[in-house]
Design goal:
By secondary structure, this protein is an alpha/beta fold. The protein has one domain: Rossmann fold (3-Layer(aba) Sandwich), CATH 3.40.50. The chain has 7 helices and 10 strands. Strands 3-2-1-7-8-10-9 form a 7-stranded mixed β-sheet, sandwiched between helices. The protein has a 3-stranded mixed β-sheet with strand order 4-6-5, with no helix packed on it. The longest helix is centred in the first third of the chain and has 11 residues.
Length: about 200
């Protein structure tokens, strides 16, 4: 996270019922969520090695729901382009583009076939969750399009954004602004440009 999530929750007086984390990776945000007293968690991670780490780090959280899949606007088996230099944090369903120039130390050296589901088709009680934290390497809009019914019940979305085409065909921040506005969301905070990408917080007005 490039923004102080705990401070954002305080600044915007967000009452968190539960968080749906899309792209949990190694569940690095565990301590942040625990400090905020988050009781309900859905953790979604497609990469096998990262999902195993999420399992390990969430085993002491009663009721945490885990899904070993990616989320998009269609379902099936898809190829994920994976890196090893960044422990898989740069892996995406999309081919890297400007990422190769802006982050030359990250090499996409392998591919992994992953299960892909639509967010709306994942089975959990949505009344217990009112926020999304997403880190999907350019595939955010595809994920949200496959989760419109879920999005309708949310109060906030914290997501990675792209200012340039870091991945081929990836959504840009203005695309997210326009799409999420249909559900009443407005981008209220944007991180410093990290070299073509960053993070942003959207709040339902």
């Amino acid at each position: 996270m490039t923004l102080d999530f705990k401070q954002l929750v305080k600044d915007y007086n967000i009452q968190i019922k539960g968080i749906i984390q899309l792209g949990s990776h190694f569940f690095q945000e565990k301590e942040v969520f625990m400090d905020l007293g988050v009781k309900n968690l859905v953790l979604v991670e497609p990469q096998k090695h990262a999902f195993k780490k999420t399992q390990e780090r969430s085993k002491d959280i009663p009721g945490a729901i885990l899904f070993n899949c990616a989320v998009s606007d269609e379902e099936g088996k898809m190829i994920m382009h994976c890196d090893e230099d960044n422990q898989g944090q740069s892996s995406s369903l999309l081919m890297p583009k400007e990422h190769l120039k802006n982050c030359p130390w990250v090499h996409f050296v392998k591919q992994e076939e992953v299960e892909v589901k639509m967010l709306d088709n994942l089975q959990f009680d949505r009344s217990k969750y009112n926020g999304i934290v997403a880190d999907l390497q350019g595939a955010e809009l595809k994920a949200f399009r496959g989760g419109e019914e879920t999005i309708k019940g949310l109060d906030f979305i914290y997501t990675e954004i792209n200012h340039i085409e870091m991945y081929e065909g990836c959504c840009l921040v203005q695309d997210l602004d326009k799409y999420l506005a249909k559900f009443g969301f407005k981008r209220v905070v944007t991180s410093k440009d990290q070299g073509g990408w960053g993070d942003a917080m959207y709040i339902k007005k």
